[in-house]
């Protein structure tokens, strides 16, 4: 009697441990202690249900060796014993062992039940084992379980997901004795992935009418999966309100996600706010909606609000908000999200780490990018491509770092380069010095027989263009089988970049003859070529394309038209094109201001600058360069000084050499040489010193000219202009000896005066 009560007490203790789900390490220790006591306390063999409890416990504690040992020691095994061990091996990734055990079970005296078959069908569905699934279906029929609704649900799911066979799924479904809500949900959910919304809604009506079943949250979310139109989402929203499930966390999250995908952000936000309980998927849906619809700042604000409410972010939320930070160009917010990553132990997650790398890469924080990459544990090809593209954007040694990382990638055993890898690799070749490496990479591309792929071919064109090899760029263009608009734009841009404007226009005509229409990418290139050729008639033709294609709202293309007319000397047409811009930005204003300055109309340029400030458009360095240039041509000294001070003090813009040169030029024209010298004494560039030297020659200020020439010779010893200008100044004053020494010095450093040339010849 005492032994029987002890056995029952120990058995109950094991069940209690299973019920409370103790930590694995503690549980496995207690399980082994109880197992030992059971063995010591019994004079008779343990009952089968106690063996099954131990078997199940060891499986839950991930100790498959002990579970198998218990199974092998069992004198008698029932269907629960076999099913428990089969499921344990499968759930831990040992599917082959699981199938072998199932086969062994069929050969034993114990026959599988509906739970055994259901589990095996589920594993076949998860692992896409199509043939094995059909074989098990045959066994289901053999054992007479084909009409069981529990097993039928698993078979319906199998035929829809593995075989994409709706006829067989319906045949199984129609043959069931009873169809409960779970079975209907499996069918509706499966069809939502492979069929249209009309068929799914028909089944939904049949579920309610034929079997009089009320839908649940899983039913409505399945309906939402197949929606593609906003009217369909609205209908399901109405059903959710009818059944009182609008505020349900699952249905509400699905509605928020679908409204975001359909662009109805306000409606999605109302649904989100009405939800009493919000889980991580709800927050992820609303944050992703704001990012998807171009409101990254709102997405970041929502993320911070979520964190304040104590909701722990997952990798999906973190990746969405990091994308928002990248689009907003907000490095500070990205750093805050990075802190949340570390706090929630996602710093080694590949998915989140790749998104964060993009933010630091955009901020030119390549050291941080490298650290993030090295901390990612299981790097996929996306992470490798991301770091390669970051290295490709380096200003110095981009090719060296990219090649080194590519070699490291090729030495890994788990990841293989793809086309995006080759695109990132070839993007690192950015100048003539990288041409040799670029040719080798192109050779690797041809070896892999992917040179005819559109994306790779486009990257090769750009590489050869950056390296100054226009002939190779055109060969790469010819190799592309399916040329897209980017291919044509790239080859047109390549010719324009390398000074072949006429050839660029001819290729544009060839593109139109092939039936490829001009777009907002290719049209500005053609307009720019017309501007460089000063071919205003050709520019007018492209202007007509601009109107015909309905691109009036494209400020970028409109600005190129303004620039074209200005460079062709037709300021009136340029001004008219500028006024037709719907939303002028800083680029379009700069273009028009430069046009006025180029024509010597500084007053109009200054007036336009005033309009720009009134509209709240912040000027940049190009704006002030155009203003300084216009003031310089007109001799407006005080205006030049005022604009220079505004640029530096009000807008904190660091002056470039061109800004100094323009300011020195206007001061030099006015004879204020000493003032100009004081401005550039510490910050002047070669261009500024040469400009001041020229002014000193005009005013015959030999003393200051000597200082300027000395500075130019220090910065650029091979430049001939400083020697010639100072020598001429010496000759004009009769200082023949000094002039002779200076010309001899020019010969010694290897400098010589450049020959004149004419654009018309």
UniProtKB/TrEMBL annotation:
The keyword Repeat applies. Keywords: Repeat. It holds the Pfam family E_motif. PPR repeats lie at residues 78-112, 180-210, 279-313, 314-348, 484-518, 585-619. It comes from Olea europaea subsp. europaea. This is Pentatricopeptide repeat-containing At4g39530-like. It comes from the Eukaryota. GO terms for molecular function: RNA binding. The keyword Repeat applies. Signal peptide: none annotated. One of its GO terms (biological process) is plant organ development.
